[in-house]
Amino acid sequence: MELNTRTHDQLVQQQITAMQAELPGQDLNTTSGSILRSLFNAVAAVMLWLQLIAYEVLSVTRLSTSTGTDVDSWLADWEVQQRQAATYATGVTKWERNSAPRALGLPVGAMCRTDDGSRTALVIADTGHDYWSADVGSQGGYLVPADVYAVDVPAEAIEAGVAGNVLAGAYTRIGSNASGWDRVSNPAAFSGGVDAESDESCRARFRAYIASLHRGTGISILTAAASVKQGLSFRLVENVDAAGNWSPGRFLLVVSDPSATGGQPSSELLSAIYAAVDAVRPVTVVPAIIGPLRTTASVRLTIEVNEGYDKDTLLTPIAQAVTAYINGLGIGAPLRMSRITNAAFGVSPDGIANVANLTVNGIAGDVDPGKLGQVVAGPVVVS
């Protein structure tokens, strides 16, 4: 329904017209600064406020026009997973020292920053690390022996969301709690940072939920799985078991988690998805939930550059672009040699003259992971 609204000037003019109609023949002073005009302006201001309140009330009566916490209250009234929170990016940081005459600790919570100070990450615990020690700092840390000049340790961005997914080499400044260390860097990009679920994504999930209320359908299975964590991708295969063999009365859901290494979901995530799927599956139908069968693609290629371009400055960006293309492939999607070439040329269309000697796992051919598999990037060597 379209509301019949008025502007401030229209409201004032309507009042002048109405009063003049009630008092014909009288010369009313409604010029700016007069008492009547001030009264009409005050009434118009209140009417604009009431008009705004009406707008807001009507907007929250529909999910499609609700925003923020009003969307959350909509979801809370139904059996729908609430808005999924933002996640923190993680990665590996490399800490170095100029001299190593004795053991040196690097505590959990040691801070590193980007050069402009806009992004910060903290060292986190990895109890399986070779140098882990519970005696370093108040929360444990890493005790690096004498004569060891560098150590790689995990770190987590302090700001949740995609902003924490910094590029390789972004962290260059040492912050607090890192006495004795001279340099820090991140050899690879941070990953896994995801923004909180947007309003539009919540609305899309709600629409999918309504469409899946006839439980036991494919869309109900996928909707239940997608409600566990945002950013996942799925492939539903019917009448096969966990090994991909023909098995009537079963279905297989392959789950890829882009925030995890190689897209391989954790056992905890698979268990949570199984529980969600089990609640909506048909009776007597047996589900199986697995991660994709990984096929690692090790790529080698050679580039030729046009005159005036520095080849060395293009090597790392090309490797990153090819890695991003490969890791963006979905479940069952083949790796195409032509797309690798396109990714390389896309880094510098004017600078790259040719891409040659392209091989994947030592072979000049495409890679098909199969319907249950997913291709993930291995070493990408550009020369």
UniProtKB/TrEMBL annotation:
Q: Where is the Baseplate protein J-like barrel domain?
A: 149-193
Record-given protein name: Baseplate protein
Q: Which organism is it from?
A: Teichococcus rhizosphaerae
